[in-house]
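A protein record in our archive is deliberately plain, so that people and models can read it alike. The tokens are whole numbers drawn from a learned vocabulary of local backbone shapes. For reference, a complete record is included directly beneath this paragraph.
>
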Amino acid sequence: MTSTTVNMEWEGICIETKFDPDSYNCEKTEFEISHLAIKVIKPAKSPLPITGTGYRSQFLKKEQVAEYGSVEAYVIAWLNYKAKSKEWQQHLKDRKQLSLF
């Protein structure tokens, strides 16, 4: 299977995902290792619940994405899960609060 690039939107943030399901396959491992790259396109370098820089590179088992049916569904589920964290909720609160510093 070849790598795929999907553009999507989450909470008003445009995101590009690149998924290579056969990134690092080795006969010595019992599972296939895939690579997922997530990059914020607009607004550029906006933080996400999974990255403060707007970019995330993740190695994972191919089956993890397959369980969700698509790369987009996997990423949305991941973002939604992490968006419930105290850190992300504080980020949203701070973003709404004006700061002089």
Q: What stands out?
A: The two ends are 49 Å apart (CA to CA). Residues 4-96 form one domain. The chain has one domain: 4-96.
